Each structure stands twice: as structure tokens, then as C-alpha cells.
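Aim 2 progress update. The chain analyzed this quarter is reproduced below.
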Amino acid sequence: MKELLKTLCAVDGASGRETRVRETVLSLIGDGHDVKVDPLGSLIVSVKGKKPAKHKVMLCAHMDEVGVIATFITGAGLIKFTTVGGIQPAALLGKTVRFENGVVGAVGVKPVHLCAGDERLALPEVKDMYIDIGAEDKADAEKRVRPGDVAVFTSDWTEMGDKILSKAIDDRAGCAVMVDMIRKGVEYDTTFVFNTMEEVGLRGSKASAFTVDPEYAIVLEGTTAADVIGVPEAERVCALGKGAVVNFMDRSTLYDKTLYDKAFAVANENGIALQPKTMVAGGNDAGSIHVSRGGVKTITLNVPTRYIHSPSSVCDGNDLNALRALAEKLAEAFASGDA
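Predicted C-alpha cells:
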């Protein structure tokens, strides 16, 4: 699983620019499957199982990662930008980003030495920042970057014991789980969907869920782990090393209680570590999927991830393995009618 995640995290693919991620997924899963790419770029893979499914089950994860988009180039050749997806300004300061054509730049802001009074302590807003690609002037910058070009964080894959540090763990972790399931084969006929544009408003999943028309959906995600210094116990959401995470409610979905309980039952039966997401926060593709067509019974399973939406996200390989194991067992339970 780690090697799959490493391969997928290394690929750049901000929202609306997921082509390279999709191509990588296709190369990893190989031939022999019914594969479709919908008009919004989502990849729909139908996999034949050993048995026909009693109920149609869809597993999905999103291919996109957060990024920035160039909006204006100054006379000095500095690039103004805005975010693609939710990024805290603090996560941008001093970081490097890479555009689709390989151009790398540093995110800069007015030097602290030129700030006075409260300005020295205030956190700059995104509108005050720029990307420096080393251009001599506007004409030079325009040879390399144009308004509308998108960039993502650069990051080196680092293993810290069981922990993994990388960009894009949200949600290449979910993609890695699905790739592994497809490659190893499934018990029941199953549809896997690699969605686009989750980070900018659940756009890809709205279309793909309508197309697939499943009875059950399992959304695989990365979710915030706030088990760090300065966060009260009741606000830590989930913790690394304690297994996969299941939602009971977030800002886009109130989840089916029967499926929520089933997740814990299946985890207990199979010795899989599982923890609840203990805050109502965030949202994911389940928000559009569960209300698609006549409604879809939906559950979200996550790998807990610290410093999400930054170049230095951290997850635990053991939690990733727990997510993989639970996704398979729940998919089998839903497909067979044991839900």
C-alpha cells in the first residue's frame, strides 16, 4: 500500500487538472476492466467479481489535490494567485509550488523587516502573496506562466517509521486503496470511481454518482487529525495510529446510522482498528452522492491525516492498511445483502 500511495502522491493533479493522476491510475490497474471517462474527467471502472452482486456497490475517492491558480502577472514578473480548494494562508508562506509545465516558484510576501507595528504579527492574506518564478519582468514571466495556469505544492515523500509525510495524501490514499482492490480482484461485481474536482465543491462526484446509479456508496477519504499540541481533547477529530475513521455527520452529510453501526460491527468481527470522527466538520463527495437520483445509502471511511491541505501532510501506514481492509469487507457486506 505504501508504494502505491507513494506513486500516486508524486503525481501532480489539482482540481480540474487530474489528467496525469487518471493516466497513472489506468497504468496501475492494467487491462481487463470496463473503463469509462465521463465528461468531467472522472474515471469509472467496473470490475467483475467472483460472484454477481445482490446490490450495486460503488467505491469512490477523488483524484484532485488542493493548489493555486495564477490570476495576474505584475510588471516585475511576480505572479498573483488565488487558491484552488481550501488552503490556510499560513500553509502557503515560504512554500514552493510547481506548475503543470514544470515551472517552480516560491510563495512570497512583503518581508518582515519592512513591516511595522501590528503588521509584523498579522498573518498575510492570500491576496497579499505572490509566486516568484525568478522572472526578470512581466514579459519573461509570461513565457513560462499565464493567468489560468495551476500549480500544486512540491513535497518530498518521507517515511518516519510507520508515519508517512507527503503532499496529496488527501485523497491519493483513497485512490491507492481502490487501485489495490482492483488489482487483487473482488468477491462481488463492484464499481470504482476516481472522481474529479472534490476540493472545489464535490463537482465530479455529482455527475459520476448519477451515471453509476449505485444502491450503496463507500467514500474513501483523508480526514483531519488534530491530535497535536494545543488542541483540546474534544476537538481532536481523530488520531493517527488508532485505525481508519468513520463519519456519523459532517457539513455535507448526515450518515445512515445502520451503515455507521455496520462499519463498527464488521471492524470488530475482523480485528480492524476503527475510530469515529468526533467532530461535525468538513465534507466530502458523500454530500452529493447520498442525494443522487432517488438517494444512495452512503458511508465515508477515512485515513486520519495531520496537516491536511499542506505540502507536509502526515498519515500512518497502519491506518492506511486498516482503511484498505475495512473497505473490502464492507463492500462485500453491502454487495451480498448483509447490511
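The chain has a mean pLDDT of 95. The chain has nine helices and 17 strands. These observations will guide the mutagenesis experiments scheduled for the next reporting period.
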